[in-house]
Amino acid sequence: MSARTVSQLKKGEKGIIKSFKDRLMSLKLLEMGCVPGCTVRLDGSAPFGDPVCVNIGGQYCLSLRISEAATIEIE
């Protein structure tokens, strides 16, 4: 069974970043503060579901494409 990702969260759900599926995308996400062990919460999404607004560690919101959110594995 594959790991759950941020793209699979429902509005208001939380997860803890475990790892990344894409090495190149992980560099971009790390620079934006998405580090393993950090709590993420899905705050909302655009009318057609893409992009999504993800709260990072209760500090700030980050807008991500669904394809980007799908590379962040959570527990």
UniProtKB/TrEMBL annotation:
Keywords noted in UniProt: Iron
Q: Which InterPro entries match?
A: Fe-transptr_FeoA-like, FeoA, FeoA_core_dom, Transcriptional_repressor_C
Record bears the keyword Nucleotide-binding: no
Quote one Gene Ontology molecular function term.
transition metal ion binding
**Where's the Ferrous iron transporter FeoA-like domain?**
4-75
SMART domains tied to this protein: FeoA (SM00899)
Tell me which Pfam families the record gives.
FeoA
Name assigned to this protein:
Ferrous iron transport protein A
Q: Which organism is it from?
A: Dyadobacter jejuensis
